[in-house]
Amino acid sequence: MHPQGPFCGGESSGIWREVSVGGGIYTLRESRSTPQKGVKMEEETNMLRDGSLIDLCGATLLFRSAEGLMKSPTKRHLEQKIEELNAGRPQCPVGLNTLVIATRATLSHADKQPYVYLNCGHVQGLHSWGLQDHCPDARECPMCFKIGPIVKLCMGIEPAFYVDSEPPTYAFNPCGHMASEKTVKYWALVPIPHGTNGMLAACPFCAIPLRGYPGYVRLIFQDHVD
């Protein structure tokens, strides 16, 4: 699947096609096991371009060109965005402790680890306020009183998946990987082949299928409430 327009900028994803052994481009079959080919697309090319996706029977690969990667953020740039966010000293409104976002989930201290309420986007520390007896996985947000699941926040640190270099202000639902608004919204609309004939949007950092609509949430930190 080729992106429509440049990958950097996050215009929109394209349409999946089947490529024959000889390089011909066809529309998708009704299912992978169907022997009948789709319609041949004479005017489409099999040449990869920046942002093309290749599905190899369940393993989906992203192709990035050298020119495209030059327009993408570096790992150090992403780390600086997290440092800037941490410099704002976001706080948990319940525990009143400062939260620290780590670039890796295994590096954060438990008492400083931020969590996001997936139904509203409020970011807080881990506490027992709002626990639901009938549903142990759900909590009531003390800021807006919406009830829903929470998940640990972690920065998506693979630069090749980013379509711009903006700050990480959104997170995927349900995994909690953070990225820029355009990056999250781009991947939330990319259909990834699943099973024999299904398509699912997934987090590019961990491949977990997105949950609900729209599959992401805008992050609301205590120091950035608007």
TrEMBL record:
Pfam families: Pellino_FHA, Pellino_RING
InterPro entries reported in the protein's UniProt record: Pellino_fam, Pellino_FHA, Pellino_RING
Biological process according to GO: protein polyubiquitination; regulation of Toll signaling pathway
Pellino RING domain segment(s): 85-226
MF annotations from Gene Ontology: ubiquitin protein ligase activity
All residue ranges annotated as the Pellino FHA domain in the record: 1-80
Family per similarity comment: Belongs to the pellino family.
Name of this protein: Zinc finger protein
Biological source species: Ornithodoros moubata (Soft tick)
Higher taxonomy: Eukaryota, Metazoa, Ecdysozoa, Arthropoda, Chelicerata
